[in-house]
Write a structure and sequence with these properties.
Elements lengths: L22 H18 L25 H8 L14 H14 L3 E5 L2 H12 L5 E5 L4 H10 L6 E5 L3 H7 L4 E7 L11 H8 L7 E5 L4 H4 L9 E5 L13 E5 L1 H14 L6 H11 L2 H20 L4 E5 L9 H7 L6 E6 L4 H11 L4 E2 L9 E3 L11 H6 L6 E5 L5 H12 L1
Parallel strand pairs: 2-3, 2-4, 4-5, 5-6, 10-11
Antiparallel strand pairs: 1-7, 6-7, 8-9, 9-12, 11-12
Bound molecules: pyridoxal-5'-phosphate.
């Protein structure tokens, strides 16, 4: 069953969020809507009847005849030719990913950074301009700040509101780049408003959304007008912390251009083994996300009331600046939060908390079955200049938490013990 027919699916996949229902119910209904796709989309049975699709480890594929080879090369016949151009295990994963994003097509890549750099370099050439947010994953920020200028592509960094994007646009703007929620501040950007803005641009810039923090469980940027959505699949999509990968999804035309650039041209291809691991992780994606998002909201609420914590960043909290927007734009508030420790010497105290946690693991990355905690200023965001970090609101004492699948009460007790 590679493509799932509509009549087999009863859930609401339209991207319409019902703000009148409670958070638990919202999570449950989203999980119900996605669960069947997670299990069945892109799952052709193996030729021997095996239920799990085979891992096709072959760098080249035999032609049936000289004429078949020539037709395949002329694009007149679909055929597996060479592992960098396409592989059945990777293609099956791409079908599942496209279904989850409700996209025409998806292209799996070797990492999240391959997806980001590939999407940007597909859209831009020397002389072009990008508008991007100040608060985002530090390596993406480095791409825009340090690497792209070497190829004549300039970026203006803005706060994540639509007016700032509008003010920064020029006739050469090719991309309005969005990361929502942002790493590590959990800032929420209005994708529908940015997409409406793009339609007014002189050259109709593309709206590209990094949805890694949300995953396709929590939001569907394409449904509200984004041109491309991309993710690091290393995170919640694969979900087990055992693989590196990325994905770009959108219209068949745009995704095929991205594929041509990032896969054929730059060689950022996902290995069949990694594709198989991601597909295996995705079968439990809906129930994993339901649980991790519920735990994150519970931990955020608990920490927000904790005397040793000065500020908690999670869109579930009513005092979060993106709360109202997230309620409209997101099915779930995501499995990540960050918080700042109260009092003097926040950095030293933060370090003590990190080293005192016994269930939560002190490690980079996110979206794992394990809860992971990190100190962004000295690790993930240390390549960001201190002034840029300050402008992005990243305090030196900030800790970022990616909730895993442990019991929420156990996690809360772990943080209480460490903070105490
Ligand atoms: N986007 C975001 C928001 C991230 O947090 C990360 C990595 O942490 C990436 C992209 C890059 O992903 P990868 O490490 O798979 O290249």
């Amino acid at each position: 069953m590679t493509a799932l027919r509509g009549e087999l699916l009863s859930g609401n996949l339209s991207g319409v969020i019902d703000p009148s229902i409670g958070y638990g119910e919202q999570l449950r209904s989203r999980a119900d809507a996605l669960a069947t796709l997670c299990v069945h989309a892109g799952e052709p049975p193996g030729e021997d009847g095996s239920l799990d699709p085979p891992i096709v480890m072959s760098s080249a594929f035999a032609f049936e005849s000289a004429e078949h080879a020539a037709r395949a090369f002329r694009g007149e016949e679909e055929a597996w030719i060479y592992g960098r151009w396409g592989n059945p295990t990777v293609a099956a994963l791409e079908t599942k990913l496209a279904a989850l994003e409700q996209a025409e097509a998806a292209c799996a890549t070797a990492s999240g950074m391959a997806a980001i750099s590939g999407a940007v370099l597909t859209a831009c050439e020397a002389g072009d301009h990008v508008v991007a947010p100040r608060s985002m994953y530090a390596e993406s920020a480095r791409l825009f700040r340090e690497r792209l200028p070497r190829f004549g592509i300039q970026t203006t960094f803005v706060d994540g509101d639509v007016n700032a994007y509008a003010a920064a646009m020029t006739p050469r703007t090719r991309i309005l780049y969005v990361e929502t929620p942002s790493n590590p501040m959990l800032g929420v950007v209005d994708v529908a408003a940015i997409a409406a803005l793009a339609r007014t641009g002189a050259n109709r810039p593309l709206v590209i959304v990094d949805g890694t923090f949300a995953t396709p469980f929590a939001q569907t940027p394409l449904a509200v007008g984004a041109d491309l959505v991309l993710h690091s699949m290393t995170k919640g999509i694969s979900g087990h912390g055992d693989v590196i990968g990325g994905v770009v999804a959108g219209s068949a035309e745009l995704v095929s251009r991205v594929r041509d650039t990032v896969i054929k041209g730059f060689g950022g291809v996902l290995s069949p083994l990694s594709a198989w691991l991601v597909a295996r992780g995705l079968r439990t994606f809906a129930i994993r996300q339901e649980r991790a998002c519920a735990s994150a909201a519970a931990l955020a609420a608990h920490l927000a009331a904790h005397p040793r914590v000065v500020r908690v960043h999670h869109p579930s909290l009513s005092n979060h600046p993106g709360h109202a927007l997230a309620r409209r734009q997101m099915f779930a508030y995501g499995a990540l939060l960050s918080f700042e420790i109260a009092g003097e010497n926040a950095v030293v105290r933060g370090r003590t908390v990190l080293e005192s946690l016994r269930l939560a693991t002190h490690a980079v990355s996110l979206g794992d079955v394990r809860t992971l905690v990190v100190h962004p200023a000295s690790t993930t965001h240390s390549t960001m200049p201190a002034e840029t970090r300050r402008l992005a609101g990243i305090q030196d004492g900030l800790l970022r938490v990616s909730c895993g699948l442990e019991g929420a009460a156990d996690l809360i007790a772990d943080f209480d013990r460490a903070l105490g």
